[in-house]
Amino acid sequence: MTKLAARALLAVVFWPSLFFFWFLGPFVFFLLSTTGSEVCPRLETRAEFLATANGTILMLAVQSLVYAVPILCLVLWDRLSPEPARSRHIVTCIKLFAATVVIGVLWAYGSSLVCDGYGKGFFSPLWQWTGYLPIVNVVINVPLYVLTFSLGRAFSTREDVAEDDASHTNQDVS
What parts of the sequence cross the membrane (predicted)? Predict the structure, then answer.
C-alpha cells in the first residue's frame, strides 16, 4: 500500500510540475530574464554589461533545477517499480533534458551579451549565433515532452486498472 501511495504522491507532483514548469514556465522565465528594453540602454562599459549578464546565471541555474522536477519524478517512479525498457527511456529523457538545459542557458546568456544598447559589439559576433538556439531547443524539446508525458502516463496509471483495460480489450477482440 505504501508503494501505491508513493506512486500517487509522485503523480501529484509530476503532472502539475510538467504543466506549470515545462509548458508555462518558459514564458515566465523569458519575461523575467529579458534585459533588452530596460537594462541595455543604461549600460555604458563592458564591465557593467558583463556583470549584468553574469547576474543572470543564478536565475538560469534555479530555472534548470525547477525544470528538473518532472525528470526527478520519473527517476523516483522507476526506483519504485523498475522496468528495463522504461529505465532506458528515462536515461534518454535525462540526456535530452541535459542538452536542452545547456542550449537554454547558452541562449539566455548569449542573448544577454548580444545587446549593448548602443549598437556596439561588446563581444564576439559568435554570440549572435545564439539567436538560433531556440530552434534547436524546440527540435530537442518535442521528443523530450512526448517521451516524458508518455512515461508519466505509464507510471501514474494504476497497474490493476491497466490490467483490467487490457483484459477488456482482449475480450472484445475474441
Answer: 12-32, 52-77, 89-109, 129-148
